[in-house]
Specification:
Elements lengths: L9 E8 L20 H19 L13 H10 L11 E8 L8 E8 L4 E7 L8 E8 L19 E2 L13 H16 L11 E3 L2 H10 L5 E5 L2 E2 L5 E4 L5 E15 L3 H4 L4 H5 L6 H6 L10 E14 L6 E14 L1
Parallel strand pairs: 1-4, 2-6, 7-13
Antiparallel strand pairs: 1-3, 2-3, 4-5, 8-11, 9-11, 10-11, 11-12, 12-13
């Protein structure tokens, strides 16, 4: 399915990075020496990108070493190699740097590239001055229905800085720290009642229509598909939007399963259109896992860490979610 497949190229890039301030680099008057500036953010991203390209080319440790953390490192280790589309040259980069008083530090970079993937989002974290930059989240827009969130809504002040939003900000109808749990409840209610209106209508999802279509189509390919979401124990990152709301990055854990209900599961190869919506396991993943053919009655479960970008433009609780999933474990029963 597209949300866990490796894509081939990119068209635009959005990056969230946590980095230390650079001693001796110079700061404008009135800006603390511990505050990352937009100029420093651009340089930090350029250095990170060179190392990340080396990782993708398998020229450094394929486990990710010190360059990856969280879901990204877990997925890289499970797949025994790079996860996600390769990056090409970027142009027209813009940075969104929040005013932060300590570690971890993070900023957003947007840039243009080329290829069939419309844009990327990276969240990189540096927990202290002594640690390196680590990618924790990577999202990419595969031009699927629903589209990618409009990150140009991120607000920037006269000094060129964005504003971080705390996890418990009660000025929003749904504080950033509560989005993962609220979205998980919405998703599970909708996924368990195919074709019915979700009980939490204030949420919406780019992936849910695909999941429902996949569940309906799975039996014709010999499978019964099911999945559910729950918040994962990962930090939440949020930026203020121009309309007063927030863009929130968070992680959920998703047991995504298929049970073979007929011989078609082993004998019939599902078309790519069915794989893209999750109606059958992805042969690409199966091949990477060296998986043997399944038997009728057997259940295959992927543990997926879903990386989300949720946008609540006005802070009113109308939350539009974009998600990508990374497989980090596989089991048979």
């Amino acid at each position: 399915m597209d949300k866990i497949r490796v894509a081939s190229a990119a068209t635009a890039l959005l990056v969230l990075v946590a980095v230390p301030a650079c001693a001796g680099s110079g700061h404008p008057a009135g800006v603390s020496s511990s505050q990352l500036t937009p100029a420093q953010a651009r340089k930090a991203f350029d250095r990170f990108l060179r190392e990340f390209k080396q990782l993708q080319a398998n020229r450094i440790d394929t486990s990710g070493g010190q360059l990856l953390t969280g879901p990204e490192r877990a997925a890289q280790a499970f797949m025994h190699g790079p996860v996600g589309p390769p990056l090409t040259q970027l142009t027209g980069q813009r940075v969104y740097v929040p005013r932060l008083g300590g570690y971890p530090r993070w900023f957003v970079t947007v840039g243009q590239a080329s290829g069939r993937v419309a844009r990327f989002l990276f969240l990189l974290v540096q927990s202290s001055r002594r640690t390196g930059w680590q990618e924790a989240t990577e999202l990419y827009d595969l031009r699927l229905p629903g589209g990618f969130p409009d990150v140009s809504q991120i607000a920037v002040d006269a000094g060129g800085y964005a504003a971080a939003v705390s996890a418990g900000d009660r000025s929003l109808a749904v504080p950033p720290g509560a989005v993962a749990a609220g979205f998980s409840r919405y998703y599970d209610a909708a996924a368990s009642h195919v074709g019915r209106t979700p009980v939490t209508a204030a949420y919406s999802s780019n992936f849910l229509p695909q999941a429902l279509a996949g569940e309906r189509a799975a039996p014709q390919y010999g499978w019964r598909m099911s999945d559910s979401l729950a918040p994962d124990n990962q930090p939440v990152y949020a930026l203020r939007l121009s309309g007063g709301g927030a863009a929130v990055i968070f992680v959920t854990r998703e047991p995504f399963g298929w049970q073979a209900v007929s011989a078609a599961a082993a004998n019939r190869r599902a078309p790519q259109s069915a794989i893209n919506i999750g109606a059958a396991p992805d042969p690409f993943i199966m091949q990477r896992l060296h998986a043997r053919p399944v038997r009728t009655g057997e259940r295959l479960t992927y543990t997926i860490l879903d990386e989300h970008l949720a946008m609540d433009p006005a802070g009113s609780g109308t939350v539009r979610d974009f998600m990508e999933g990374k497989v980090v474990a596989e089991a048979r029963s």
